[in-house]
Every structure is written in structure tokens, then in C-alpha cells.
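OP here, attaching both records as promised.
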Amino acid sequence: MSGVRKCIFPVAGLGTRFLPVTKEIPKEMLPLIDRPIIHYGVDEAVASGCSQIIFITGRGKRALEDYFDRSYELEQLLKERNKEDLYRLVTSISTLADFAYVRQPEPLGLGHAILCAEPFCNEPFGVILTDDVMISDKPVLKQLIDVREKLGGSVIALERVPHEETERYGIVDATPYLDNVYRINDLVEKPKKEKAPSDFAIMGRYVLSPSIFSHIRNISMGEGGEYQLTDALKSLAQEEPIWGVVYEGERLDCGTKVSWFRSTIRRGLQDPELKDVALEILRDENIIK
């Protein structure tokens, strides 16, 4: 089985948790230190071997499209001012991969968003949800791709979560297979802790067989008037194996204001220059000594 060449980014969400800033700025364009959140996901996909990036967008996402396009005026200005490092940085963004954009006409859930990319994906493909920024030596998506190349089927990223938080995630019933790989028996969308089959939560990385599209079309609309990818995966598991990988790496949750702020601090403390600034502020505020 060959590597995965395509990666889908569902980015049509309204970002209501970050209003009012997301009234005009896509949530995915919020910065995590020196680059927008979505840039981290695209870098991960490219480092995993993907050469085609497919964004599932909606209204108000033009800034995202512009970010991954050429900016000739800015490039020319940087050249004229002999800012070669910045010129190379800016021009490199548009050459990371081949980009395509598909509109999701209405917000009908993650399953529906992925279905919008069906014309582009007649082969196994990756999915990255940008709320989760993954920091790892080996890209998390690549960890999943390697499992797919060995075992076939579809692959999802897993992380153990506190049992009282299971209702925030899709949760799996899984059987150990080898090392950090599990065979998925069942999937449940946001179960109450007393009904959760395990504490293994699905995180925002998938490698999916194109068979998923027929299962999305056949599922019923779920809670909130959305088509849940978890329901389609549950159906797919009856047809072909689905594997779960407890990934190696650090997840920076950027899905809420609190988690985004926490992730910004954590990411800043990983930068030698910014770490000193952050510690200086904390000392000035008498938070630390």
C-alpha cells in the first residue's frame, strides 16, 4: 500500500466560542505564537507525505485562502528592502502543497464536511482537525499512515482522557493489538461517563478509506442536526478494520478561549526567547519568585 497523498481540513465552522474576533477572522487563523493554528496542521500533513491539501470551507473564510496564496505586493516590498529571510518565509507558504477549496453549503457536521471532499478522494486520505495542534518528533498523521500501510483499513488517533471528560469526545471500545495499536470494536459520540466503553478518546487525526463516503451517506442525522463522522465510522467498522493508535506527542488544544490561551503559554515556554519574557512577566506580577 502506497503512502497517503491527500489530507482534508474541515474548516467551515463559525468559531462561535471565540466571538467577536471570529466575526471577521476565521478561528483557524488565530495565532499560536508566530503562525496561525492552521499552519501547524498543514506543516504536519506535508511532513507526513501529503502533497494535496483540501480545505472544506464556508462563508467568511477568505483570509484562510489568502494566507496560503501568493502575496505579490508583500513579496516585492520585502525584496526591495533586502529582507531576504522574510521573503523566503512568505513565499514558502504558498509552495507547501497543492491547495484546493470546497464550500460546505451549510453546517451539517464533520461527517457532512468530509463528504464534500468525495470528488477529490478516491484513495485513502488524511483528515486533520485544526483545534488540536500536535507537537511530536514524528508527525502524528504519519504515525497513523504507517499503521495503515502495515494493517490496511482506516486509522484514528487515540488519547486517554479522564473518565469524567468522556462526554466531550468520541469514545471507542477497543482491543489491544500490538504496542500502541488497538482494534476498534465500537465508537460512541460523547457518552456520559457511566456509559463510556473506555477512556480512549478520538483525537483530531484520521486516515480514512474512501469507503467512508458511502457510510456517511447512509447514516441518519444525529444530535444537533449534524451528520456525525463517529456514526459513519461505527458503520464502516462492520465492513473493514479500523485501528486506533495511541499517538506519541503533545496535544495543544486550541478549541476554546481557555485552552487556546493555555496552549499559547505552553508553546511560548517552549521557545527559549519567549520563555524568558514570560517568566519575567510572572515575576513582575509576583506570581512566581
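Record two, same layout:
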Amino acid sequence: MARDEFSELRAFIAVANDSSFTKAAAKLGVSTSALSHTIRGLEERLGLRLLTRTTRSVSTTEAGERLYRSVATHFDQIRTEIDALSELRDKPSGTIRISSAIHAMEMVLRPKLATFLTEFPDISVEVSINDGFIDIVGEHFDAGVRLGESISKDMIAVRIGPDWRFIVVGTPDYFARRSPPEHPGDLTNHQCINLRMASAGGLYAWEFEKDGRELEIRVAGQAIFDSIFPVLHAAVDNLGLAYVPEDLARPYIDDGRLQVVLNDWCPVVQGYHLYYPNRRLASPAFAMFLEAMRYRP
């Protein structure tokens, strides 16, 4: 059905319901003359008179009554369905698929998920843990979570966490046996725990910055992991030095199990952002998720 035909039928049903052009026009938000013109156009297209007009009343003709009985119920169903869709908007539902690094999941998403899922019981959230870069469009994710500096410019990015920094840590026992490094270059003489990242093309180079000078150090050691949590735990287990997010190591630093070295060389990185294609039409569920995850200092 063309839009004009739909408008004509809607206008006809309104007039037939109220037996009045004036009342129907007020409900439809149009002028009486515009409504009369619409009905006249419908009658001319059908080649039938649908309404009998007098100075005091409006009534349906035989053809008009037949048309009214056949289409009015369908318009009621359409109105019911539209109301149902409005209810979905008011009570968002569906599944949201997110790709996230493990650190972002644990430190940024996880603290907010319980509250969000409790508030929106009809929404499900599926999180796929992936520390590398993936094509969220090709893999059918609604969004991804990555550091702000690593997000493509053709994506919309919304900050969901604060800035943070990497630090180098080791146990007191380790430093009792070996002198702490005083410069990033000294790390080549230490037992270090490596992180393998597909996005880095192999083992992740430790990054440092001081007074505008940037360094990348390739370290060596016996232990290599592909996730940041085992790297941290290996440092706690005295297997060597680790380069980890400060917030992950903080509990172990506070209780004395780990110590920080090269503190003035450790760089701050942009916080985590939720990113998604700029052409994406956000569903009500995704819009609610986005607002719930948004970082508010």
C-alpha cells in the first residue's frame, strides 16, 4: 500500500468513526478542508461515493460501510502493533554482543554489568574475550572495547573508563637477588615475563616514556603467556619482572607482594572506549547499554 493510500484510508476511517469532518480533523491534526480534500481524492480514485454529507451530519454510503467494515479492524491491529513496539522501546530487549580484552572486561565492564542486567532483565550481554584486533562488523559484534588510541577513525568511540598506565613490577625476593633496573635498557639483563599478542605481531614490546623520549624494549625470559592475568600471577610467583596495568597490580603492591620499578618511565595510556560502526542504527537495548557503560569521572 502506498503512503497516500494509507493516509486516505486513515482519514476515511476517522470520519466514519466520528460521523464528523470537524471532529476527525481535530484528532488527525489537519484542517477540515484538507481532510475533505483527502476523502474526495479517495472517492475519485475508487469511483465510488463513500460518505453522504449533509449540513448536520456525515454517514457512510453502502460502499463506504463495506469499506469501513473490511479495513477498520486492520487499522486497529496496526495501532496495537505500534503500541507493542513502543513498549519494546520503553522496555528494551535483545542480545548485545561485545568483543573485549580481558583487562577491559574485568576492570571496566564487569563492575557495571551486574547493575545493568538487573535493571534490564530482558537484555542479554555476550562478551567475547579477545586481546587482538578483530573485525567487529565481519564477526557480527555490536561493539568492541579497546584503548582510545587504537580505534579506527571510521568508528564511533565512547569512553567507558579512565586513563591508566603500565608499570613494571617484581617481588621483593626477586629484587633481593638482583638489583632493580634504573633505566629501561637495563631490562635486557633481567628475567622478564613476556606477553604474546597477535595484534603486536608476536611478543609485546614494553613501552616507556620520559621527558618526551619514547623507548620500546624487547625483553626475554622463560615464561610467555597470551593473556595479561597469567603474566601478573607469574610475577607474584617470583618468575621475573612483569609489565602490567597498574590497577591489576595495585592489590599486590599494597600488600607488599610486588614492588614497582622504573616508575618515572611508565607511560599513561588512553582509557578504554566502546566503539561501533558510524553507520550502525543503535537498537534501544544497545543505546541503554552504551549509557550504562559510559565513563563519568
